[in-house]
Amino acid sequence: MSPPLLKLGAVLSTMAMISNWMSQTLPSLVGLNTTRITTSDALTQISPKEGWQVYSSAQDPDGRCICTVVAPEQNLCSRDAKSRQLRQLLEKVQNMSQSIEVLNLRTQRDFQYVLKMETQMKGLKAKFRQIEDDRKTLMTKHFQELKEKMDELLPLIPVLEQYKTDAKLITQFKEEIRNLSTVLTGIQEEIGAYDYEELHQRVVSLETRLRDCMKKLTCGKLMKITGPITVKISGTRFGAWMTDPLASEKNNRVWYMDSYTNNKIVREYKSIADFVSGAESRTYNLPFKWAGTNHVVYNGSLYFNKYQSNIIIKYSFDTGRVLAQRSLEYAGFHNVYPYTWGGFSDIDLMADEIGLWAVYATNQNAGNIVISQLNQDTLEVLKSWSTGYPKRSAGESFMICGTLYVTNSHLTGAKVYYSYSTKTSTYEYTDIPFHNQYFHISMLDYNARDRALYAWNNGHQVLFNVTLFHVIKTEDDT
Question: What PANTHER family does the record point to (predicted)?
Fold first, then answer.
C-alpha cells in the first residue's frame, strides 16, 4: 500500500475508534449504561424525559462522522452530579470535535490524492493490458523509436563533452576574475592614497622622462625580419600598397596601386579593415601613368616616377593636383637599371625617419646604386651617395634611419645582403634572411610609423615586422 493509502487507513481507523468510544463511554459517564442502540444509520426516538441518550455515530454525505446526544429536560440543579458530568462531557466533546475537524481536513486532502492516484493507476493498468495484448508490435515500434532517439542524441555527446570543458573554463575564468578583482581592489586602494593633483604631476613627470629617453635613442640598425603577415590577396602579380608614415594615429588610410605600368588609378581606403573588405573610400585619377611599383606616400602626398621618364611627380591627395615635378639627373629609366624582376623599377622612392629618398643608378656610377636625399616640397636633390652595388643585381631595397638595405633577389631564398650608411658613407655585407612566402616580391618598402616592411608578394599584400638595435646617446655624443 502506498503512503497516502496507509495514511487514509490510519485516519479511518482512528475515527472508528472514536465513534466506538463515544457510543460506549458517554452513557457510562452520565449513568445511562442501560441504553441500547439498534443501528448506526437509523436513530431510535427516545423521549428526553428518560435521561441522557447517546446515539452511535454515522456518516454524512461527505464522509464526516456524526455523534448525536439527546439531553433530558432542563429541570436539574446545577450542582447535580450529572450536571457536572455533563459539563465535563461537553468539554471533552468540544476537544474531540476540534481534533476530528483537523482529521477531517487531512482525510479530504488525502482522499482527493487517492482518487487521483486511482485514476492514474487505472490508466496505467489499461496501458499495460494494451501492451500485453499486442506486445510484439509495440516492442518493435518502441525499439525503433528508441533507436531513432539514440541516433539523434549521439551527436550531442561531443557537445556535452565541450560543455564540460567550457564549464571548467568558466570556473577558471571566475577564479581569474576573482584574482583580478583582488588586484584591482589593491590598485584602487593605492590610487586612493594620492589625490588627483599628485597623480597628475606623477603622470606629467613620467611623460617628460619618456620623451627625454626617446630623444636619446639613435636611429636603429636592422637586426631581424619576421613574418610575413598576409593582409590581403588581390590585384595582379605586381603592384604597390602603402600608408603615410607621417599621418596621425587616427589617420590609417591605405593607398593601393595595381600593376607597374599603363595605369594611373589610385584607390584609397580609410583603414586596413576597409582595405581587407574592399570598401573603397575614394579613387584618384592621376594626370600621368606611373612606372614601376616603387611609389611612396609621405605627408599627405604621393611621390611616383612618371612613365617612360626619370621625372619625379609630387601629387596632393587633398587638392588632387600636382604640386611639384623634377627630373632626376642622369637617372636610368624604362628598364635600363631595374631591380632583378624588371618592371620599370629603375627609380625607387622611399621614406624613413630622416626624410624622403630616391634610389636609382646612373651611367656615371657604372650602373651601381646611387642614394639621393630629396627636398619633400621641391624634389630638389639635397645630397647624394654613390655605392658600389650593381642596381640590376638587387632584388629590392629600403631605407631605415638613413641606411639603405639591399636584398640579393626577388625570389625564394632572398635575404638582406648589403647595407650602406649615409651617416658614415660606409657599407657592409649582411646576412638577414626573411621568408619570401609567395616566391616573387615586386615591392618592399619600410614604414617608420608602423616599424614594418610593406611588400607586394606575387599578388599578396603582406607585412614584415622588423627588429632594430638602438643605441642610447650619451652627453659626449655630438
Answer: NOELIN-3 (PTHR23192:SF36), OLFACTOMEDIN-RELATED (PTHR23192)
d(CA 114, CA 108): 10
Helix (H) or strand (E) holding 205: helix 196-215
pLDDT at 26 over 80: no
Residues 176, 305 within the same domain: no
Here the cell at position 135 is 506486445
One domain for residues 167 and 236: no
253 and 169 part of one domain: no
Q: How many CB atoms lie within 10 A of CB 65?
A: 19
Record the cell numbers describing residue 426, joined without a space: 660606409
Number of domains in the chain: 2
- The length of the chain, given as a count of residues: 478
CATH number at residue 414: 2.120.10
* 474, three cell numbers: 650619451
Residues 191 and 225 in one domain: no
Residue-level pLDDT at 366: 97
The DSSP annotation for 39-85 comes to: -SSSPPP--GGG--EEEEEEE-TTS-EEEEEE---S-S-TTSHHHHH
Domain enclosing residue 28, as ranges = 3-33+81-124+149-217
What strands, in cross-sheet order, belong to the sheet with 356-361?
348-351, 356-361, 368-374, 381-390
DSSP structure string for 88-122: HHHHHHHHHHHHHHHHHHHHHHHHHHHHHHHHHHH
- Would 242 be classed as within a structural domain? yes
Question: Percent of the chain beyond pLDDT 90?
Answer: 50
Cβ atoms of 395 and 357 closer than 8 Å: no
Q: Rounded to two decimals, what is the model's pTM?
A: 0.57
Residues 265, 177, single domain; the answer is no
Helices (H), 134-155: 135-153
